[in-house]
Design brief:
The chain contains 12 helices and 12 strands. By secondary structure, it is an alpha/beta fold. It has one domain.
Amino acid sequence: MLILLPPSEGKTAPSRGKSLSSDELSLPVLNPARAKVVDALVELCTTRPDAAVEILGIPKTQPELVTLNARLTEAPTARADRIYTGVLYDALSPTTLSPAAKRRATSRVMVTSSLFGLVGLADRIPAYRLSGDTTLPGIGGIQAHWRAHLGPGMTEALGDGLLVDLRSGTYAAFWRPGADGSSTVPARTATVRVLHEHNGQRKVVSHFNKATKGRLVRALLESGSNPRTPAALAEALRDLGWTVEVGAPTTKGTQLDVVVTEI
C-alpha cells in the first residue's frame, strides 16, 4: 500500500542540519527532473528576487521566503515529516506514532512535492516555497513538468500495491492513475473524499477534510492494516470506526466517501 499525501503550503525551516543531498532521497529515478526544478527556482530567487515575489505568489510581508529558495542547495535539511506542517500533518502527528507505525509510515507514505516530485517521510529536505500551480521560468508549468517526469517514480513507489490517493486537485494533476494506458493502476487506486453531514445535507469542509485525512492515515498506520483493493480499504476503515461509502470503479480509480457528522 502506498498512501500519497499533498504537501503543506506552510513549512518549518530547520535551524541546523546537513545540506540537501539528492542522492539520499527516495526514488533517485526522479533526480534529473528534481535538479531542473531546484536549479530554476534558485536561479529565479537569486537573480530576480523582485520578480520571484510575483511569480511565486509570495506575500510582500514575507520576503524571507525568496531568500529561503535562493539558499536551497546549502540550507539545513530535516526529515520531510518535520518540514511539512498544517492541519493534515498536525492530525497525522508523525512524531507521536508508535514505533511500529513509524516504520510503516516510512515505507508506505509519500508526499507529492512541487520541488521534488515525491518524497518519503524520512527523506531529508530543506523548507521551500513553490506551489503546484506555479509557472516557473526555465521550466514552465510545474504540473506539466511533473506530468512528464513523475510516472517512473510512481511506478517504482507503488509496485503492485494499493494506491490510497489523498492529494488535493492541484497535486493530483502531477500524475493520474492510468495515464500510461494501464488499466491495472486505476483498479487498485482509492481516492478519498471527506463529507460533513448535517441536517441531511453533505458538503466538503476544507479544514476538516484535511484533519480527517490525517486521522485516517494515522489510524491505518497504527492498525497495521494493509488492504490490497479499494473495497478492502473501505472495510478496514469501517473496522476502525469510520462511515465509508464506496463509489463505482472508474478509469481514474474508486472514490471512497468518508462521512462524518461532527467537526
